[in-house]
């Protein structure tokens, strides 16, 4: 995927960019070994329930790596942080608050911390492995155990990169890294509110079964029976 910032996102391109990112997320999640330990219903609940936070932590990281002046959304498109000099598309105005939160509370702190690829990899997996409503007790137990395992791995990853770093400094770094997750959670809620509105009223042609399922119905237990009984009812790009 091309994450380099080349032009402002437009309303027409938003749907394509969003579907591309979700497709990348689904492929990424399928490789997490702990996901395979859950039963099928818990897998679906977790993948759907953690989709938005996982996608936006990816976008934030790619924005850091590419030094994007805002938020990259793949395919060469990006959402600008400074919107004072040029008039961006209406979608940028609509999502302006989300862009500002991501920039000030996630992207800039990640740059200041100089987060390594290994640290980011752990951070995204930990962000994904969060218990969500309606998970079975067995699923919650397995998810919490996996999450704690990856949190413990932070110490080893930091020690490997900086063998002489004292333990108090390591623990402080782990704490600062973990504080990035609540930011993504806040952004995910903001995104849900905005995209649900766009899906319901077909703003920027965002009305589709995938958009509706991920942003409006992700805590609806009936969504999963629909997945099983009618595989063609939820096409990825519909």
UniProtKB/TrEMBL annotation:
Q: Which PROSITE patterns match?
A: NR_LBD
Against Pfam families, the record matches this protein to: Hormone_recep
Q: Which residues form the NR LBD domain?
A: 1-217
**Carries keyword Plastid?**
no
Q: Which UniProt keywords apply?
A: Receptor, Transcription, Transcription regulation
Q: What is this protein called?
A: NR LBD domain-containing protein
UniProt source species: Acrobeloides nanus
Q: What is the lineage of its organism?
A: Eukaryota, Metazoa, Ecdysozoa, Nematoda, Chromadorea
